[in-house]
Amino acid sequence: MMKIGIFDSGIGGLSVLHKALSAIPDAEFIYYADTENVPYGEKSREEIEQLSENVMQFLFTRDMEAIVVACNTATSVAIKKLRAEYALPIIGMEPAIKKARDEYPEGRTLVIATPVTVMGDKMRYLLEQVDSKHLVDLIATPKLVRYAEAGVFEDEEIKEYLLGQFKGLDLGIYSSLVLGCTHFNYFKTLLRSILPESVHFVDGVEGTVMQLMRKTGLDPEGVHRKRCAPTKKYMDRVSFFYSGWEALPEDLSKIECYFDKLDEVEKL
I need a labelling partner for 75 at 20 to 30 A (CA). Which of 50, 81, 140, 225 fits? Predict the structure, then answer.
């Protein structure tokens, strides 16, 4: 059975695992959450590179056939170096700006991401490729990662935080909102209450899983039509690690709750 590693600074990458489990039913997974060092998006480039290297070493020694860097920040900073060092497919994440512009070209695109992703060279290069008309606006929302890690998704405090970050923007001019961090998928319900109905959510999860399938010789056709069944069905195919330590039973219970939330917001 194929073995695939997925890692993130925390629980954000569960959104990638959530999709991959249903799209690739004949694979085993290791999910690594570097919870001792979350959030990556507020650290220096040097710290992010070293933390990513540490996780890769852990996964590589466990005979993975492919590894997904399910973290936009780690992808932005470290993936080029990781690919040069490790001889296996390494699939990264990037904000799905091209997808947003292709599918919803009639308005502007708003991107929310971590500060490192917003200010990174990878973002600048991406915008040079897909935003020649300068229709993309970037907003850093770092506190969302901390809220997600705490399991709080729809609190009034979070709503006030987002409204503060969006202050001065005319939200009616946007046709799409790009969720540029995997942690942000959990906040779709709250974001829906803030944004006009004409604003569509776009994230890179599906595209990342499709690229994973291509790189491992699988056919990604139809992945967008597949939805996850209840999480418990999949637990025997996943080993969970928190910063190198195997997850405890209480951790697995929390993970099930995160999967339930992902099932809910997948419909938005």
Answer: 225
Contact by Cβ (8 Å): 57, 160: no
pLDDT tens track for 207-242: 999 999 999 999 887 676 555 554 556 778 999 999
SS3 content of the chain, % helix, strand, coil (to 5): 50, 20, 30
Which of 181, 199, 262, 265 is the catalytic position?
Answer: 181
| Catalytic residue, candidates 38, 59, 71, 79 | 71
Other CB atoms within 10 A of residue 42 CB = 17
| Nearest residue to 20 via CA among 256, 181, 211, 243 | 211
Residue 137 belongs to what H/E stretch?
A: strand 136-140
Active site residue 257: no
Across the range 36-61, mean pLDDT stands at 96
**Residues 60-76 pLDDT 10s:** 999 999 999 999 999 99
Single-letter code of the amino acid located at 258: Y
CB 91 within 8 A of CB 15: no
